[in-house]
Write a structure and sequence with these properties.
The chain is built from ten helices and 13 strands. It is an alpha/beta fold and about 250 residues long.
Length: about 250
């Protein structure tokens, strides 16, 4: 193969135009992502993904993926990026590259109304706490309260809610906005309430939720950051935010 042909091939690969983008999504994290009865994906993350692809000028294909395997599937090239409320943490940065944040909301505990459980090591001693497995919330509860509580880990947040309603757990720990809109404000969550402070320590919860990509896709990284800035500036982000929330979840 001549050097000219080799250079042409390398240039073509490195200059990928990203006219088609496959986006990994979870589909089990309302109101950020969920699947309707007809199979349609809906939610804040879904609308953000579509808005970002539109801003880039790319065709957007949504690829549902269980949370446990969402980064391995990205690295295996099942899709090109992840838009699934993934917190930007130092541990995850070792494996993937992140865009700038597109929202940042605190974590919080919820308890059954009337239980009187206090958020402290003594107040929670012997209690069962539900978290979604392999999340920042899982890391936090393990490190800060793991010697006081029993931790039950679930593949999806919805599974944790089901066990809460069934009385199998004493506390939930999750993103406060996701838990409020996806559980506490619903009929099934009417018997539960928030308790304790907001948790935002970057050591556990990172810098907010970002778009994850493979480290080698530097052009895509630039496009994603530019698109986030653009939809923030042109009002698209606010329209999507206000469709789902009554506060600005972008954060400080």
């Amino acid at each position: 193969m001549s050097m000219l042909v080799l250079f042409t091939l390398v240039s073509t690969v490195s200059a990928k135009e990203w006219k088609k983008i496959r986006v990994g999504v979870e589909g089990a994290y309302p109101p950020f992502s969920s699947v309707q009865a007809d199979g349609t994906l809906v939610g804040f993350d879904i609308d953000i993904a579509k808005a970002i692809c539109a801003e880039i000028g790319a065709t957007c294909t949504l690829v549902p993926q269980d949370w446990d395997g969402i980064i391995p599937a990205l690295l295996a090239r099942k899709y090109d990026c992840i838009i699934a409320s993934m917190s930007i943490t130092e541990e995850r940065k070792k494996k993937v590259a992140f865009s700038k944040k597109y929202y940042n909301t605190p974590a919080k505990f919820a308890r059954k109304k009337g239980s009187g459980i206090a958020i402290s090591k003594s107040g929670m001693k012997g209690k069962v706490v539900a978290v979604q497995r392999a999340t920042t919330h899982d890391n936090f509860i393990t490190a800060e309260f793991g010697d006081s509580v029993t931790i039950k880990r679930y593949g999806t947040q919805d599974e944790a809610y089901l066990d809460a309603v069934a009385g199998r757990v004493d506390l939930l720990l999750a993103d406060s906005i996701a838990m409020d809109d996806g559980f506490l404000k619903t009929d099934k969550g009417s018997g539960w309430e928030f308790v304790g402070p907001n948790y935002t320590d970057p050591k556990y919860f990172g810098e907010g939720a970002g778009i994850a990509m493979r480290k080698g896709d530097k052009k895509l990284h630039q496009l994603m950051n530019n698109a986030i800035d653009a939809i923030r500036a042109n009002g698209t982000y606010k329209r999507i935010n206000d469709k789902y929330f009554n506060i600005d979840i972008y954060g400080n």
